[in-house]
Design goal:
The structure holds 2 protein chains of 2 kinds. Chain A is built from 7 helices and 20 strands. Chain A is α/β, with parallel strands linked by helices. Chain A has 2 domains: 172 residues, FAD/NAD(P)-binding domain (3-Layer(bba) Sandwich); 152 residues, FAD/NAD(P)-binding domain (3-Layer(bba) Sandwich). In chain A, the strands form 6 sheets. In chain A, strands 5-2-1-9-20 form a 5-stranded parallel β-sheet, covered by helices on one side. A 5-stranded parallel β-sheet of chain A has the order 11-18-12-13-14. In chain A, strand 3 and strand 4 form a beta hairpin. The two termini of chain A are 22 Å apart. The model of chain A has no long low-confidence stretch (mean pLDDT 96). Chain B is mostly helical. Chain B has one domain. The radius of gyration of chain B is 17 Å and the shape is globular. The chains are: A alpha/beta, B mainly alpha. At the A-B interface, helix 5 and strand 17 of A face strand 1 and helix 3 of B. One iron/sulfur cluster binds next to strand 12 and helix 4 of chain A.
Chain lengths: 339, 112
């Protein structure tokens, strides 16, 4: 009988790691608390940098779950150490005794309403990056009359100590530029602005996307953090920022504002960390043994990580980490048990 | 009217609410690469004229983008078209040609 491994979190990291573990001869038990597998990837429409559809990545993964026991709408009730094993009890009444647990609980999207000065949840025409993906995905046209001036606000709830997140979320600069081009395709006559502090186009082909946004789409980039948003009588927005390259304050009337909500640590991290007695960092993400040398290994025997649970990551980074985690677990399970 | 010693200072806020900027669009048609500027400032740093005058090509491009062409003339009139900025621009913009096009689009030729 093949050995079980518990994988907690059914996003891209959890699914990919489960498939890899299965291929290595184990029986993964994949636990997802929501009704569907796929994590955040299930919500996105098209992916940076090339604009391929998110479902072309996710669908083949979800279609290949043979040999993996997975449970949706299921959570972990308790985890206890028994000799050199972990006893994991699930909310569906089942339990498993395993030597290795993989935590792939991912991230939470920063709650944009916390940045009150931007008016999300108060002004109708202020939406988030995730709302815009919902739009694109459902094809539902916006309900607003004229959409002539559109703004994207970078770093919402990232690089912001007041918002409790000092880290850069890494994916939102390129997401903003991707979405700015997409919305320009939908509203070709609109003027589209990106308000950035630094543009972090670090990945392969990201800079090309930026260049395309400038040259082919005429996206206007303004270096400066939006300080506040207000609304006039007919629901249009007034956006204030400093054009820091020009050295002058700036005020623009806008028809739509998209907030680039960042990646915050998953809410359940603390609870799970307590169950298996590991640390989360000051930033709330799990702390691996070494960010460089062993990003998938925790400080405890038999507890492993993959994906955005240890900090903001892109999809390719998440998937390759899932593969590394499967190998790390395999190596751990193959080393003889201490007596 | 009694003079209380107070005055109104005009707002220095950039007005780009009126977003149409036909002159810049015309420049973009003629010189598409102008949109590629990333405001790195290499051109300004290497500019022979900039050492002694207020010439800054980075600033000229930004001012045009923001519809503030009036502010560019005092800068542009110092340019000697030496082309040093062209050598350093990381986006490969033909800056010298761009400066000539700015002159044409904004009808600065006679003033130079
Ligand atoms: C706006 C935005 C757009 C993006 N677009 C792209 C893109 O175009 N290209 C790209 O490469 N990357 C993109 N990313 C990044 C991508 O979404 C992440 O890399 C990826 O989702 C990380 O996968 P994950 O499995 O680690 O985490 P997640 O996707 O967050 O999945 C975690 C899963 O674990 C579950 N879970 C959490 N806690 C528990 C628990 N206690 N018990 C059971 N289950 C639990 C969650 O419900 C979720 O299903 C984007 C990110 C954002 C914010
Ligand atoms: S990726 Fe860009 S928008 Fe996102 S937090 Fe980092 S700098 Fe800000
Ligand atoms: S061409 Fe003009 S702007 Fe460029 S370096 Fe020479 S003087 Fe300066
Ligand atoms: S060197 Fe090129 S990219 Fe840099 S500011 Fe000058 S024109 Fe723009």
């Amino acid at each position: 009988m093949s050995q079980n491994v518990v994988v907690i979190g059914g996003g891209p990291a959890g699914i990919e790691a489960s498939r890899r573990l299965r291929d290595l001869g184990y029986t993964p038990i994949l636990i997802e608390k929501t009704p569907v597998l796929g994590g955040h990837l299930a919500r996105w429409d098209r992916l940076f940098p090339e604009g391929i559809e998110a479902r072309t990545v996710l669908d083949p993964m979800v279609a290949d779950l043979d040999g993996i026991k997975y449970f949706t709408e299921t959570e972990v009730s308790s985890i206890n150490r028994l000799k050199d094993t972990w006893v994991v009890k699930l909310s569906n009444g089942l339990s498993a005794q395993v030597r290795a647990i993989l935590l792939t609980t991912g991230f939470d999207l920063f709650k944009a309403e916390k940045k009150e000065e931007y008016g999300y949840g108060i002004y109708e025409r202020v939406i988030t990056n995730a709302d815009l993906e919902d739009w694109f995905k459902s094809g539902a046209a916006p309900q607003f009359d004229a959409v002539n001036v559109i703004g994207f606000v970078h770093c919402v709830g990232s690089r912001d100590e007041k918002a409790g997140n000092r880290q850069c979320s890494k994916v939102c600069c390129v997401t903003a530029v991707k979405q700015a081009c997409e919305i320009k395709e939908k509203f070709p006559d609109a003027t589209v602005y990106c308000f950035y502090m630094d543009l972090r186009m670090f990945g392969r082909k990201y800079e090309d996307l930026y260049l395309k946004a400038q040259k082919d789409y005429g996206i206007r980039f303004v270096r400066g953090r939006v300080s506040e948003v207000s609304e006039d009588n007919d629901g249009h927005l007034f956006v204030k920022a400093e054009d820091t390259l020009f050295g002058k304050p700036l005020k623009i009337k806008m028809d739509l504002l998209v907030l680039m909500a960042g990646m915050a640590p998953a809410a359940d991290n603390h609870q799970l960390a307590r169950m298996v007695n590991i640390q989360t960092g000051e930033d709330g993400f799990y702390l691996p043994q070494s960010i460089i040398g062993s990003p998938c290994t925790s400080s405890r025997e038999g507890i492993f990580f993959a994906g955005a649970a240890t900090g903001p990551k892109t999809l390719p980074e998440t998937l390759s980490e899932a593969a590394s985690a499967a190998l790390a677990i395999d190596r751990y399970l193959k080393t003889p048990q201490k007596k | 009217m009694i003079d209380f010693g107070y005055g109104l200072t005009p707002s220095s806020t950039l007005k780009i609410e009126n977003v149409a900027n036909p002159a810049f669009e015309e420049l973009r048609q003629r010189e598409p690469d102008v949109a590629k500027c990333i405001a790195c400032g290499s051109c300004t740093a290497s500019c022979s004229a900039g050492v002694f005058t207020e010439m800054s090509l980075r600033r000229v491009i930004l001012s045009l983008q923001r519809g503030r062409e009036k502010e560019t003339l005092p800068m542009l009139q110092h340019c000697m078209l030496c082309g040093k900025c062209l050598l350093v621009c990381p986006r490969g913009i033909n800056t010298r040609h761009l400066i000539l096009s700015i002159g044409k689009v904004y009808k600065m030729e006679e003033d130079r």
